[in-house]
Each structure stands twice: as structure tokens, then as C-alpha cells.
Amino acid sequence: MNAGERIGADARVISAERNAGATYKDILDNDQTIRVSAEARPSEDYWESTNIVLRGGLVTEGSITAVVTSTGEATILGKLLNATAGASYLEKPVLRKINKMINVAFLIEIGIGFAYLIVNKTPAKVLRA
């Protein structure tokens, strides 16, 4: 994989240029470039392991040669997406705003309806006064 190419699968790095790097900014909301090497330097944070590249990342510098370890739903990203499928806390902010706006509009319509009923049920002489 060369600079600018999207990483399409989880893979173990077998060789990398000295300045090779990858980023997962589209996944993690983090612009940090992680240096990649064939040397195994595991990290507590799996995303920062230097000898592993993960699906969804982007090669930012240099070139990397790697052996694919998993693809599709078997990748770390695939497992995360499957585990969170249908979770309500992942609802997009725009959808939350639309739902709130619909609820407010509904309450306003109910209020207008009650006001109309009150005005139309009130005797005419009370309204003339």
C-alpha cells in the first residue's frame, strides 16, 4: 500500500519504509499519524500498534507491505459495527433534532386545537363583552 491509499483489510506489516505512517481519522476523529513498522511494538491501545494496520485507515506517508489477517465483517472495524448495529445512542444528531422539531410541532398543534375548542364552546355573549 502506498501513501494516499485506503487500507481495505486488517493486516500485519511485514515491511515498511522508515517514514511510513497511517491514520484512522475517519474512524476515530483523530488526525494523529501512527508510525508503522514491521517491528512488533504492541500498544495498550490496539489502534496504535505499530506492526498492524486496520481496515478503514489511510496510508499517509511511505509504503507498507502487509499480510492480510482479516477482511469484511471479521475485521476489528467490522466487529465494532456489528456490535453497535441498531444501538440508539449512535443516532445521528440531525435525526435527534428532526425528532425534537416534530414533537414540538405536535405539541403546538394540540395547543391550537384546545384553544379552538375553548373559543368555540364559549357562549357568544361572553365573547361580545
Describe the structure in your own words.
The chain is α+β, with helices and mostly antiparallel strands and 129 residues long. It folds into two domains: 10-84, Calcium-transporting ATPase, cytoplasmic transduction domain A, CATH 2.70.150; 91-128. 36% of the residues lie in helices and 20% in strands. It contains four helices and six strands, in the order ββαββββααα. The protein has a three-stranded antiparallel sheet with strand order 4-1-6, with no helix packed on it. The protein has a three-stranded antiparallel sheet with strand order 3-2-5, with no helix packed on it. The radius of gyration is 28 Å and the shape is rod-shaped.
Key phrases:
129 residues; 2 domains; Calcium-transporting ATPase, cytoplasmic transduction domain A; three-stranded antiparallel beta sheet; alpha+beta
Strand coverage percent: 15-25%
Radius of gyration from CA coordinates = 28 Å
At the fold tier of CATH, the topology name of the largest domain is Calcium-transporting ATPase, cytoplasmic transduction domain A
Shape: rod-shaped
- Give me the CATH architecture of the largest domain, please: Distorted Sandwich
What is the fold's blueprint, element by element?
Blueprint: E1 10-16, E2 21-23, H1 25-28, E3 33-35, E4 52-53, E5 58-61, E6 64-70, H2 76-84, H3 93-121, H4 124-128
Antiparallel strand pairs: 1-4, 1-6, 2-3, 2-5
In short:
With 129 residues, the chain is α+β, with helices and mostly antiparallel strands. It has helices spanning 25-28, 76-84, 93-121, 124-128, and strands spanning 10-16, 21-23, 33-35, 52-53, 58-61, 64-70.
